[in-house]
Write a structure and sequence with these properties.
The strands form two sheets. Strands 2, 4, 5, 6, 9, 10 and 11 form a seven-stranded mixed β-sheet that branches. The protein has strands at about 1-5, 10-15, 20-25, 30-40, 45-50, 55-60, 65-70, 75-80, 90-100, 110, 115-120. It is mainly β.
Length: about 120
């Protein structure tokens, strides 16, 4: 099983910055994709940014040029640097990891963090 611990959320004024981090631990054979999703009240959960083990990235159109995703493969960590934050960025942000484990070593499963709240005031 894989456990994800998130940190870095908080309250920030419009135009400010925050850095989210997520650490994965457990019976991990290999981590493939890592990413961040967010969910605002009354909205569906949406992909914000994703990164492969090789460092390839993709972003939601709404955050391109403002957010940067990165990972440390040796430490099983993924980060999201958020710049020029807007009120519409307000949401609960969830770390996602696709991992191969010893208990199910033939397929990769998705694991989710507990969520960290980001609130941007106008």
């Amino acid at each position: 099983q894989v456990q994800l611990v998130e940190s870095g959320g908080g309250l920030v004024q419009a135009g400010g910055s925050l850095r989210l981090s997520c650490a994965a631990s457990g019976s991990i054979i290999r981590i493939n994709g890592m990413g961040w999703y967010r969910q605002a009240p009354g909205k569906q959960r949406e992909l914000v940014a994703a990164i492969t083990s090789g460092g390839n990235t993709n972003y939601a159109d709404s955050v391109k040029g403002r957010f940067t995703i990165s990972r440390d493969n040796a430490k099983n960590r993924v980060y999201l640097q958020m710049e020029s934050l807007k009120p519409e960025d307000t949401a609960a942000y969830y770390c996602n990891v696709k991992a191969l484990t010893y208990s199910r070593g033939w397929v990769s499963d998705d694991y989710w963090g507990q969520g960290t709240q980001v609130t941007v005031s106008s």
